[in-house]
Amino acid sequence: MIYVKTASSISHQNSFQKESIWEDLHVLKADSVVISPDYKNYIPAAALRRLSPVLRMAMTAAQECQKAVEVEFDAISVGTALGCLKDTEKFLQTFISAASETLSPTAFIQSTHNTIGGQISLALGNHAYNMTHTQNSLSFEVALIDAMMCCREGKKNVLVGAADEAIDFLELLRNELIKTDRQFTSGASFFVLGSEPTKVSVADCSITFNSIDLSKEVDSFLSKNDLNHSDIDLVLHAGIELDSFKNSMNYEDYSGFHYSSSAFAFHIGHDFLKSVNANNVLIINAQMNEKLGLTLLKK
Amino acid sequence: MIEIFVTGYGAISSIGNNVEEMLQSLLDEKSGIQKGKLPHSEKQLVGEIHFTNEELIKKFGLKTTGSRTGILGAIAAKEAFANHSINAEIRTGVISGTSVGGMDTSEIEYRNLLEEKPHNVANYQFHSSGNSSEQIAEELGIDGFINTISTACSSAANSIMMGARMIRQGMVDRVVVGGTDGLAGFTINGFRSLMIFDEEWCRPFDESRKGLNLGEGAGFLVLESAKSIEKSESTILARLRGWSNASDAYHQTASSPNGQGATLSMTEALSVAGMKPEEIDYINAHGTATPNNDLSESQAIINVFGSKIPPFSSTKAYTGHTLAASGGIEAVIAILAIQKGYLFPNLNHRNVIEETKLQPITTIQKVNKIRVVLSNSFGFGGNNSTIILSE
């Protein structure tokens, strides 16, 4: 069995350093902003100035996870769909419009997807396995699958999470490439997985591509886990409307839109199981057409 | 314990459009690095593939269009998968590494935006790194597990490692693994901003080395379990024995002077393989030819192998540094070394590095037997990976 030891999110909700975020979730208003902790408590001021929002959020959430478990992580698995967008755009602007021969490398250095995982390892002085996964709307799920593999290989404290950031540029892609009416948001959610029993376990996570019949996929995932629809106490979903479950909520109402927001759903599901008398949470991520991520959390 | 077999390989780079051409260039000691021929590369020496995207699509009969990264990946993956077919009984996946995905298409469109020219939003559809892997999977007709690893220059090695672990855990039977990166203005300017280009041909492990030459390409393997091979009836090319990834946790772009991360990754890969250092017959080093990498890697090699350093070389003076593709292309080179019994040289080498005095292989050598090859790939963020292949 693989258990969740701790959860930490920085999001547009009041989610950081909360015993449970379940009781204090609010449907986001269209102009919501990230509720940021005081990053200075986690990142030296000199470093903080040059770190983009996604790096600040991820490094802080990861350090909060480290504080909670104390023992050094023996693997780190990060998912990000679009990576460090702010620095990517900044470096594009820099070199395209550069008048001089010399370019500042900072934005380039901080633009690659694995800057997130790399900066976490640097902040923690961690020498373990460090992986960065990116698979569009399933980026958190692939990071989670790797983290679960690490646990099955005997690793005891595996940091797993996802982070993505919104930039204004994304508005240009709305409708034509990014099909959503929701606000583009930023978010970082990190968790520690291990074999030591806690209140919540991750029973399964699976991803499929070219999924045409979503409800059939959901049914076969449930039956693989010996569950019926009625066993699921809460369904957290995106990109699909469901009426066959007793209790469901669209997690994008709370996370807003970013491609790794199923990580925030994982946090909601985790805290729900921790605080409510219930046994099973199913996360259905159908944010992008034909791509389906299914995650099962159990008490 | 499930053993991991390599049953397909494919590569494209500036030294060849396929594995056979690459082998010939390696034997001829013929580098693919020359003055760039495109607006974004003309100021540098680069390992460029001299075909446009349209020419590549036509030449290789690709279904995919998309970014250069996706196109190069599809070409090498298609070669690797050429003797395979889709079989409902073989759960097959694709795991590909890339550093900047479809940036080569995005940067053209973004320039239009900045220069207030007509801006076609549709051209960003290939931007995300994940798309390049989906393009590859579609080209091969694979609709199982798809994943993209983006850990800069260790991406392909990490994809190979992830594929092996998934087979070992029984999650897939067969998996196409590797990496791809097309040259882009973004990366050329990025490395220029870091001031780590050599204006001459790069000289890995040479005292006078000044930096790297960039390259582009893709390299893929097909990994399979024995059970899968019974069904696919594919030919075994090599075995993947060990793998590891470790973090240097020293600096976002520089490697530690004592090579801690690289030492950890090599040591752990040997332990996964259940091998002793003396069993390694050849090391295909990361060897980018930057002053920092080669010194750090040399130190790490000394840490792991002590006074008994196996023959080693970096083949980046052939291909240039192909970033996320390098671990895939070099895994193919490692298998060629095993199959053909050649130690491929570290071109342009004259003098050993003063501090470490490690002498790489400098001319092509036919040897009796190469059983086991260790291949290093190190990326930004101190991301160090090692894989071990054997006959």
Helix content of chain A: 25-40%
CATH architectural group of the largest domain in chain B = 3-Layer(aba) Sandwich
Radius of gyration of chain A equals 19 Å
- Overall pLDDT confidence of chain A: 96
Assess the beta-strand content of chain A as a share of residues.
Answer: 15-25%
Q: What's the CATH superfamily of the largest domain in chain A, by name? A: Thiolase/Chalcone synthase
Structure, described:
The complex is a heterodimer of chains A (299) and B (391). In chain A, a hairpin with a 6-residue loop joins strand 9 and strand 10. Chain A has two domains: 2-194, Thiolase/Chalcone synthase (Peroxisomal Thiolase, Chain A, domain 1, 3-Layer(aba) Sandwich), CATH 3.40.47; 201-298, Thiolase/Chalcone synthase (Peroxisomal Thiolase, Chain A, domain 1), CATH 3.40.47. Chain A has helices at residues 45-49, 53-69, 85-96, 106-109, 115-124, 139-152, 170-173, 214-224, 252-255, 262-275; strands at 2-10, 75-79, 129-133, 158-164, 187-194, 201-208, 234-238, 248-250, 280-285, 292-298. In chain A, helix 2 packs across helix 5. Chain A is α/β, with parallel strands linked by helices. Chain A has ten helices and ten strands. Chain B starts with a strand and ends with a strand. Chain B has a ten-stranded mixed beta sheet with strand order 5-4-6-8-1-9-15-14-10-11, with helices on both faces. In chain B, strands 2-3-7 form a three-stranded mixed beta sheet, with no helix packed on it. A two-stranded antiparallel sheet of chain B has the order 12-13. Chain B contains twelve helices and 15 strands. Chain B has helices at 19-27, 53-59, 68-80, 103-114, 129-140, 155-168, 185-193, 226-232, 260-273, 291-305, 316-319, 326-340, and strands at 4-13, 34-35, 45-47, 92-97, 146-149, 174-181, 214-215, 217-224, 238-247, 282-284, 312-313, 342-343, 365-366, 372-379, 383-390. At the A-B interface, helix 3, helix 5, strand 3 and helix 6 of A face helix 4, helix 5, strand 5, helix 6 and helix 7 of B.
